[in-house]
Automatic annotation (TrEMBL):
Keywords carried by this UniProt record: Ion channel, Ion transport, Membrane, Transmembrane, Transmembrane helix, Transport
Residue ranges crossing the lipid bilayer per the database entry: 7-30, 36-54, 66-86, 92-117, 129-151, 184-209
InterPro entries named in the record: K_chnl_dom, VG_K_chnl, Volt_channel_dom_sf
Species for this entry: Clostridium gasigenes
Pfam (any one): Ion_trans_2
Protein name (Swiss-Prot/TrEMBL): Potassium channel family protein
Domain of life: Bacteria
rRNA-binding keyword on record: no
Amino acid sequence: MRKRVIYELFIGLLALMISIMLVLELMIVLPKEVLLSFYYIDLIVWIIFVIDYFGKFLLSKYKTTFVLENIIDFFSIIPMKIYLIVFRLLDFAILINSSQIIKIVLILRLVVLILKFKNKIKEAVRINRFNYVLILTTLVIVISAVVISLLEKMSFGDALWWCFVTFTTVGYGDVLLTTSLGRVVAVILMVVGIGFIGITTSTIAMKIINGGRRKIKNNFKRELIETVKYKLDNFDDLSEGDIDDIYKTLKALKK
């Protein structure tokens, strides 16, 4: 169970990584070297997705059910060329130019990958919410720092410092953003930061509440056991009703 959750989380993080790459492609004019690196990374991840999908498909007992339940995974392995061919067959080129078609295809793929990311991590988050939220939050801060360093042309160290300060909603104001996209990243970081603080607070509160409940339960259990021991020490004085009560008490404690 745990291995499966970790594996699904890994697939989800790969989908998140490709999503971020697509966002950068859509928003920033990237150098050819970076685009080439993105292409090879995308190709490797696509191969992993294909192996993952068809491996699970072959192992599943109910093929039709598997396809219907994993429709997002299916769309995530469709190559971009197929999307472009479909657009051309539908004569969208008459209405919009080829560069706009490519952007639309990238956005569609981005939506599919975000949905894939959400589907893959939901089990991991459900089982151990705080730990995985902490991991995802760290990824968001680091990735945001990379994006800010590219957009604002600042060092990665300064960008990381700014992201951490913004995320914690402190906002010293020692680093100011000049680009519109940089400010969009700032808004996203603030929203994520507020959410993280809320989750952290609720997790700590639940730990304290559950800890108090366990302590009360253990104290009550200990008192019952001491009562049973005291009665057993005076076994000769016990009535049939007392013995029956002891039996019921021990049976209840065993559950």
